[in-house]
Automatic annotation (TrEMBL):
<dbReference type="GO" id="GO:0003676">
    <property type="term" value="F:nucleic acid binding"/>
</dbReference>
<dbReference type="InterPro" id="IPR036397">
    <property type="entry name" value="RNaseH_sf"/>
</dbReference>
<protein>
    <submittedName>
        <fullName>Uncharacterized protein</fullName>
    </submittedName>
</protein>
Amino acid sequence: MRELHTQNPEKINVWSGIIGENIIGSFFIDGNLNGETYLALLQNNVVPPMANLYQLKETHNFQGCIQLKRNFIV
């Protein structure tokens, strides 16, 4: 094994959830986690198992963190 020095260390994003006695995940996220990839993760990977557990309706509300950026022309 050899030691490598890089400017940007390798990283991995993993999402897992615990609801009651049930574990949902672990889901591995390629690249950076942003609003778009987080929403896709929720819609494609998190909601289907939850729907099976709790017989969810078609409408889902998500609560989480969001960072807003705006560009202004002065």
